[in-house]
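Quick check before the chapter quiz. The format below is the same one you will see on the exam, so make sure you can read both the input and the output lines.
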Amino acid sequence: MRGGLEAAAKGELGASDELGARLKAYEGRSASVAGKGKDLVNEPMIRHWCEAMGDTDPAYTGPDAIAPPTMLQAWTMGGLSGHTGRAGAHDELFDLLDEAGCTSVVATDCEQEYLRPLRLGDEVGFDTVIESVSDRKTTKLGTGYFVTTRTDVRVGQDLVGTHRFRILKYAPARQKQEPKGTRARRPRPVVNRDNAGFWEGVERHQLLIQRCTDCGTFRHPWLPGCNACGGLDWDTVEASGEGTVYSYVVMHHPPFPAFDPPYAVGLIELAEGVRIVSNVVGVPYDKVRIGLPVRLEFRRYDDEPQEGDEGGPLVLPVFRVLEDQVGEVG
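Here is the expected output.
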């Protein structure tokens, strides 16, 4: 059985897709039953979440605090020790995919619905079902199946929210061998309806920052709503381009053909108060330091067209160490 399925994963997952039909039979089956959150809704976890997200909404503090809605999944997580009550259907489904050569997995998206806030002391329960398995799909990563699970979150008998999580379980595509002398191209950003305006600005050599029109709070990366007041209306301002290195890492591994490690990736705090991740240029990687002043510039990559190109050259914001600082760090 295993040998036949592995052959299928190499391109012979036949026209009838018998594997797909077997996977479809798992739709509607339970992945977990009567799960219980490991902790009651509590103030310390809410505080840590808000600090990590930079969310200062007063509704999340004090004796009458509610939990941020986006924490919904956090209350259902099992941690390293997992949960009891996990149903076998989930493991069976993944075993089938593994046997078919779909051994790699990537999270693709999630959706959440909120029916009422979670409050301090609430005990969270949940049930998870395998909601859908897609037809066989071929992507740039490889060929496989999108699996969507739905978790219904309850307090007592009351449904308080729903979390849908979608993954792609796939057989990795064989890497295309580039002709000798051809430089690998940089990965393209994922552009969606929430961040399209940011990348359009980058194309024009503008670094645009969202600004809430209700409370005036700047935010980055781009989000559909304000994490300070919850307002949904916003406009943009163009960043001055001045900033400092707030933190950084030096990348050595994993190697990627389009990059030449080691190189420095910085978390840059802009003069406007928001932070952005980008490359630090103008000094050797081992001379980058926290607090180093930098200035925005735009770099163009992959100018030479290659077969199969999509979208042409790539423009990215990077941050150059100011000239008067180069000697000091040299």
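If your answer matched, good. The longest strand covers residues 158-172.
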